[in-house]
Amino acid sequence: MTEPDHGGLTVDVEVTRGSFTLTVSLVAEPGQVIGLLGPNGAGKSTLLSAVAGLTPVSAGRITLAGQLLDDAELGTFVEASGRPIGFVFQNYRLFPHMSVADNVAFSPRARGQGRQAARAAASYWLGRLGLTELADRKPGQLSGGQAQRVALARALAGLPSLLLLDEPLSALDAGTRLDVQAELKRHLADFSGPCLLVTHDPIEALVLADQVVVLEQGRVVQQGTPAVIARQPGTDYVAKLVGLNLYAGRADGSAVTLTEGGTFVIPDHGQHGDVLVAVRPSAIVVSTGPPQSSSARNTWQAKIAGLTLLADRVRLDLDGPPHALADVTPAAVSDLSLDPGSQVWLSVKATDLEVYSRSD
Amino acid sequence: MVTRSLRPAARSRLTARERARRAARGGASRSVPAPLLVPALIAVLFLVLPLAGLLIRAPWGRLVAALSGSDAIAALTLSLWTATVSTAISTVIGVPLAWVLARTSFPGQRLLRALVTLPLVLPPVVGGVALLLAFGRTGFVGRYLDSVFGLTIPFTPLAVVMAETFVAMPFLIITVEGAFQSADQGFEEAAATLGARRMTVFRRITLPMVAPSLGAGAVLCWARALGEFGATITFAGSFPGQTETMPIAVYYALENDPDAAIALSLVLLLVSVVVLVSLRDRWLRGSPL
After folding, report:
1. Residue A243 reports pLDDT greater than 70
2. Is A300 helix (H, G, I), strand (E, B) or coil?
3. Could you report the per-residue pLDDT of A153-165, keeping only the tens digit for each?
4. In this predicted model, what pLDDT tens digit does every residue of B197-222 receive, in sequence order?
5. Which one of A87, A93, A107, A109 makes the best mutation probe of the B interface by having the most chain B beta carbons within 10 Å?
6. Chain B partners of A53 at a C-beta cutoff of 8 Å?
7. Which end of chain B is less crowded, N or C, counting CB atoms within 10 A of the terminal residue's CB?
8. Which chain A residues are closer than 8 Å to B208 by Cβ?
9. Which homologous superfamily is B55-283 in?
10. In chain A, which residue ranges form alpha helices assigned H by DSSP?
């Protein structure tokens, strides 16, 4: 089997580290940003490490632009230093004893350019990322956002064919994160090769990635565009991340019988068999009595298990069946005297229920 | 109801200053119990008194005369350059060995590490005897050096350098090995992803990052080499101007010219103080190497 020489990355591997096994198969096209989303310990960083050549794979192969990087069966392995990659590490790992300019010149120099050429390459990339005036600083004298840009400049200065970013924004405080994120998006758009971006922040994945791969416990549990992931989460983990209620059930006609108990009636959803139903917490209407005249077709009783104050609303944790998270205004909490333990009625319009087939 | 009164010892006066200290930094009383205080004071006296004696007995008036007499300058010169050369040799061959011990694993590594650090605990005289048996004119290596190259090592300045290196290099090796082990290897991974091969990583990342420890190890090594006595006198002898180093000169001067011995000792004491000051960031603050 030969991969088409299109500049893309193909990964079809198993990586074993102690008792943990990561099984991933993915393709990243040139210019495409793949967001690897998952909880801690899902294997995201292990995957980057394998692609970078810092961890050999236990089975399978990795190719980049038709070039074999790692193949457990053939025994082929290209050392990290021989792979045309740029890696932005989680805490950047800027060399503390070198100036910003020397950090950025490191890769051109290590890849065989002369001192002058490496310095010129460094000043080009420093200019491109707006870092020229920081060239003589040491990494210890940089702010988080500046260090992030230097790390990106250092990775890009080696003219990589593949970019790997490990939680590039996690070391930043909330204030600078949005600015740096917007900037990073611009630079990623300029990069012509494939890019893998690890994150556990769904917003980051949704904003920066063209395609999202969700990893849980070493396995790919969902793959799709950010829009699909956000609207139709495949697992409870993703649903929680994107803030949706998620129910598994069986569709039969317009009725969906939920696994945990309860039924939704949703006309014309066009699905059969095992399905998932997603609904926004703000789409669920909470009332103290049975709703009277309402266009909502689905109502059920629930008990309040807990209340959490979010920025401008209160999130109710409700025991069903089915269970639900519902958002109400703080005023509603006092008007309806909602307390833990009190019984309420929930209703949701059929049009707010997103039904889709379960992919696995 | 019976209230138990506080034991008298538990009640004491607390000055405003001490109150402020405890409030700011927390922690209990700083007073030292007598069973600890008395031995501690004895230890201080034991360490400080001899040095004070050296300063009190010093012939301050004719210090320069005592030093310029006969062999003192030659001994000092010999000691300084042999200690420096053996430190240089220790760095050139000891740092790679420290890296191998810290970063690789192979069968017999533990044994090798034990052998390398053995000179730390070995009586230096034994080291001198061992060197003599290996590199002496009839030693199993020295025999061939003598017959093939006409090279005779014992009782030459080269023998001084070898004796000092043998005894002092382990200080450098264990200091640098610890630094190699504790250095953050994440930086080396980063360098590899940037295209650097292993030797480039070593030269441009690892070595600069252990530089402070290498400096400390080199100073320790140099100080140990400067003070070397047992291995040197056994393997290199004590020919004035040839192999008579400062410590050996002090030892012989004590018999016929005590003032010169004291003056030479003061010079060595001064050098030691300079060494200690140069290491103060690492030692005097109580942090480990």
Report:
1. yes
2. strand
3. 999 999 999 999 9
4. 999 999 999 999 999 899 999 999 99
5. A93
6. 192-193
7. N
8. 97
9. MetI-like (1.10.3720.10)
10. 44-52, 100-110, 115-128, 144-157, 174-190, 202-208, 226-231, 236-242, 330-335
